[in-house]
Specification:
This protein has a domain of 129 residues. It has eight helices and seven strands, in the order βαβαββαβββααααα.
Length: 230
């Protein structure tokens, strides 16, 4: 007994394969999904799953697209590890741009995911019905629009910042301790608050002592008498 679940899945790469070997595609054409063996495709997506169809004259099974990378990992393990099988048919030939940065075109397929195990079937069913939808299109929310408006309102005034940074802040001078008169302390006279404040604010300036210039003796003068004692 096999369990089956249907889901609408995109066949990505329609703009490439319709010009190579799928030029006569039409609705209800049968397709199958297999694990990709092409090395170039595996470099882009290591879990790539190819969509194949009977094309050409004589007809043979050829790759005509790929399962979207958003779900390729899940389809890969469904086919390889769980022994599942995926087949179906073309739902419509009306393509749309792929919602990925690389761009491209894709068309919808109606695929059957068949599994011999109920647990695997239930997991795949939950994923396809709750986490993936081909009809989903991203749109901006009101929160995103509010964030964009806030970003536009932000202005950076570079000139003001430069003016403020150019100001030089002078360091504060430390006050010198007040001068204490030893005589007043010995006599027991206490200074008033005003006198203490004046003393604390006052500064003692000591006069500089001028140094006398050294005397220069001229020994070359004839006036110097030399006395020689015998």
């Amino acid at each position: 007994m096999a369990y089956k679940v249907q889901a609408k899945i995109a066949s990505r790469g329609y703009h490439v394969y319709k010009n190579v070997n799928w030029d006569g595609v039409k609705a209800n054409d049968k397709v199958a999904v297999e694990i990709e063996a092409n090395r170039d495709s595996l470099k882009i997506d290591p879990y790539a799953c190819a969509v194949k169809a009977m094309v050409g004259n004589p007809e043979k099974l050829e790759t005509v697209g790929h399962v979207p990378r958003e779900i390729s990992r899940h389809v890969y393990f469904f086919l390889k590890e769980e022994g599942g099988k995926v087949d179906g048919y073309v739902l419509s030939t009306q393509y749309r741009p792929s919602p990925i940065p690389a761009g491209g075109l894709e068309i919808p397929l109606l695929l059957n995911f068949k599994s011999p195990r109920y647990v695997t079937h239930q997991k795949m069913k939950d994923f396809l019905t709750k986490l993936y939808s081909w009809d989903f299109e991203g749109s901006k929310t009101t929160e995103d629009e509010d964030d964009e408006e806030k970003d536009e309102e932000i202005n950076f005034d570079i000139e003001n910042d430069e003016e403020e940074s150019s100001e030089v802040i002078k360091p504060k001078k430390k006050r010198k301790p007040p001068i204490i008169d030893d005589e007043d302390e010995e006599e027991g006279n206490e200074l008033s608050d005003e006198e203490k404040q004046q003393d604390s604010d006052s500064e003692v300036i000591r006069p500089k002592i001028k140094q006398k210039p050294p005397k220069i003796v001229d020994y070359s003068s004839d006036e110097i008498d030399v006395v020689i004692e015998n």
